[in-house]
Structures are given as C-alpha cells and as structure tokens.
Amino acid sequence: MSTPQFNNYINGEWVTGPTFENRNPANTDEVVGNFVKGSPSDVEAAADAAGAALPGWANMAGPARGNLLYKVADILDRKFDQLGEEMTREEGKTLPEAKGEVRRAINIFRYFGGEGSRMPGMIVPSERDRVHMFAIRKPVGVCGLVTPWNFPVAIPAWKMAPALIAGNTIVVKPASASPLSAWRIVEACHEAGIPKGVVNFVAGSGGALGSALVNAKPIKAVSFTGSCEVGNWLHAEASKRHLRIQLEMGGKNPTIVLADADFNSAVENVCNAAFFSTGQKCTATSRAIVEDAIYDKFVAALVERTRKLKVGNGMKPGIDIGPAIDQGQLDTNIRYAEIGRKEVGEPLCGGNRLTGGDFDKGYFFEPTIFANVTENMRLAQEEIFGPVLAIMRAKDFEDCMRIANNIPFGLSASIQTTNLSRVFEYVYRMEAGLLTVNLPSAGVEYQLPFGGNKDSSFGPKEQGPAALDFYSDYKTVYLKY
Fold first, then answer.
1. Best label site of 127, 178, 233, 331, fewest CB within 10 Å?
2. In whole angstroms, what is the distance from residue 194 CA to residue 196 CA?
3. 111 and 38 in one domain?
4. Quick one: 227 and 264 in the same domain?
5. What pLDDT, on a 0 to 100 scale, did the predictor assign at position 208?
6. Is residue 168 part of a domain?
7. Catalytic member of 143, 189, 271, 282
8. pLDDT (0 to 100) of residue 211
9. Whether residue 292 is found in the same domain as residue 396
10. Is 425 a catalytic residue?
11. Does the pLDDT at position 122 exceed 90?
12. Residue 36, domain extent
C-alpha cells in the first residue's frame, strides 16, 4: 500500500510540493504519511490569503461562525476512532490517551462555537447626560499559530477555535514530528465549508518557516507553544513589528507530598503525572518534593509502582507508556540519566534505553527515578521533557514551598495533603499558573484559563473565556442621543 501524501492548505486549495516523512516513533519502519515541506513563500502566500479573507470572515455574524465550528466538531466526532489511532501512530502516546485528546479537541470546538452567540463586550453608565457608552470586541487580524508535537490535536484546537470564533483568519504551522493530527482539523474546516483563505496550513521546518511567519506583513499576532529557546527568539522577532504575542513554554513542575496525604492516592498521582504520556507534557511532574516524615516510605512505594508500568507500542492493550517522540528526545533522556548518575548515583529504577525485539524499532526509554536530588542540581532545575523524575526531601511544609518556588519556571504544581489550611497556603503562595490539589499536576480542562508565569509563559492565557482576550481587541463607542 502506498504511503499517503498530505498537502499544505492555502487559500482553500491543497498545495503540493517536495515532501518529508512522518514516521511512527514506536516503529520507525512505518511511515505514517508524507507531508509537503512548506517554504517561506508558502507562508507568505498563506498570510496573504488570510489577509484577503479577513474582512468577509470578520463581518460574518458570530453565531454563523459558531455554526461552522460546530460542523468542524461533528466531522471530527465522526472520525473519532481514526483520529485516535493516527495520533498514537504519529506521536506514540497510548491509544486511550490519544482518544481522550481527540475528545477534548471536539469539545473545544463546540465550546467556542457557543461563544459565537455571546462574544461579551461592555456596557457602562456615562458621567454625562444622554451619552451611551459601550465597547464591542473586534478581531485582531491574521494570526499565526505555531503548535507543538506532544498534544498534536488538542493544542491546535485550543488555538484555532478561539481565533476563528473571534473573527480572525489563521495560518497554522504544526510541529514536523506530528503534523497529521492538526492536518485533520484543517481538513474538517475545509469539509465544514469555512470560506477559502480563513484557515491555512503550512507544514515544514520551524527554523525555515518561523522567520517567514513572524515577518509576513498581514500577520498581526502569533501564538506559540514550544521550547523556551524558540519562544524567546520569537518574542524578540515579534517585538520588532509590535505583534501581539502569546508564548507557552517550559516547566519544571513540582508535586508536594505532605505526611498527612492520602498515601496511596499520592503515589498514584505522582506516578501518573511523572510518567504517563512518556513525561512529554509541559505540565508533567518532574520534581516530587516529599516531607521528611514519609520520604523513605513514599520513595519505596513509588519505585514499586513505577516498576509495574508497561512500556511499548501504544496501539497495544495494556501499555502504560509509549516511546519518546524521536531520536533527539531519546538522546535527551539518556543524557539526563547520565547527568543524574553523576549528581546522585544510580537511579532507583530505570535510566536506560529499552532494547531487544520490538523495542529496537522505536525510541523507548525506561521510567526513571532519582532520589536525594537537591535544589541546585541540574536534575532539579532543567526541563527534560521525558520520563525522568527527581525526588527531593523537605523538612516540612514551609521547606516544601520554598523548594517548589525556587525555580525559573512557573507552569503547574500539585500538592497532596488532607490539611485544608495547607491547601490554601499553597493556593495563595505557589508561584505557578496551574495548581492542582490531590490530583496529578498534568490533566487540565478547556473551560478555564491555561498558562503559567515566570519563564513558562508570556501574554494572555489560553483556553476558557480568557482565550478571547488574546484573539480580540475592543472598539469603544461614545454615543450622544
């Protein structure tokens, strides 16, 4: 059977050209698809098409735009099983995780479809006689959306849906490691009848296309999710043109485990947050900060639980953890395992690439735990983005909080405790944008704002009602009658 080709989408047309391969990280013998490798001129053409389509889309009634988003959701829903399987094959996460993400993307389009009938503005009383004052939302313009490989359908959805419902037109640039999931959303937009030029899709190298995107004249805003290095470069470039910019970047997220926690639940939550999705979540727990009174007991139980995790091809039943996304991420996991050995000695479990049989065809790495990690070690400060957990000892709650906040990042955090006062202390003092209590640090919903602080994020939050703050502006009106 021939390998399918997936073309770029510019001004309502499928555009062909030279291709690059998208391979299955669990079985590199399998090519999931060949994707057209976009050029800077493709990005410019996409931005020009989006600029030409902007007036018509922006002036369409909000509920009419919402109805088209509902159609997109329905199309994705009809292809639910197919989309889940394709995501597992291109990204590696287990099939249940992939299907959960597809469901989330469908729900995001339905949620923002409903916003088309609301689009709240402001009405306030004037100090002057017979003056009516109000502010209405207006679109920002053409938005460039740069999405990562680790949530290849949910993150494109949570950028595309609010951008479109607010009346913007878009150019989507997905990660080259997993472009198919985002392509399926664009295909659904085409099938739903969204007018030509409103949605555009250009795959290819971020290095080659990023500069073209940020410098394309019609672009007025860029939303980016990815590494701190690229995000910082993008911020500097976008600032030269005074573009609106939104950045979601790295994390080094803590889970605090206090002595009064529900012990078994805490073990399960840390295991889930550290290792599910192969640790390839910006909200994953990479530091477990454990109160001294239960430290040894907790470490032993967590190691025992982690050793029961099954690593393998995510399409197979009973698998907990899939492969790293590619050779580069696998090399990073291996490198940090060696860094950990130099800093604290052998890991309590894991620390090696898995080999033999089907493992030789993919990028598989053992779930890895290092204990007795201290604050200044690289294991405690640097984002790894893989299944490598650093466990740190703390004297008490105050020490836990100090250690947790002693980090350049501030994306997500979790606390495991049954003490209500400690919960509220943590809620008000934790320096992170996403907080969980007695839950894993990873696993958020679409109805509330998403984003961090410090070096993790820049600009308005994503998701929930707050998403419209980035993708819209206000037009203020004073009317004498």
1. 127
2. 7
3. yes
4. no
5. 85
6. yes
7. 282
8. 94
9. yes
10. no
11. yes
12. 5-249+456-480
pLDDT of 388 above 90 = yes
Looking at the domain assignment, is residue 446 inside a domain? Answer: no
Instruction: State the burial class of residue 281 (Cβ atoms within 10 Å of its Cβ: 0-12, 13-18, 19+).
Output: buried
pTM of the model: 0.97
Mean pLDDT computed over 123-135: 98
Query: What pLDDT does residue 207 have?
Result: 85
pLDDT tens-place string over residues 338-386:
999 999 999 999 999 999 999 999 999 999 999 999 999 999 999 999 9
Q: Rounded distance, CA 239 to CA 353, Å?
A: 41
Q: Are residues 239 and 322 in the same domain?
A: no
What's the number of domains the chain is made of?
A: 2
Shared domain for 367 and 381, answered yes or no, is yes
Determine what percent of the chain is predicted with pLDDT higher than 90.
98
Active site residue 349: no
Q: Residue 416 pLDDT > 80, yes or no?
A: yes
- CATH code for the domain in which residue 214 is found: 3.40.605.10
Q: Are the CB atoms for 270 and 257 separated by under 8 Å?
A: yes
Q: Is the pLDDT of residue 1 over 80?
A: no
Q: Are residues 132 and 278 in the same domain?
A: no
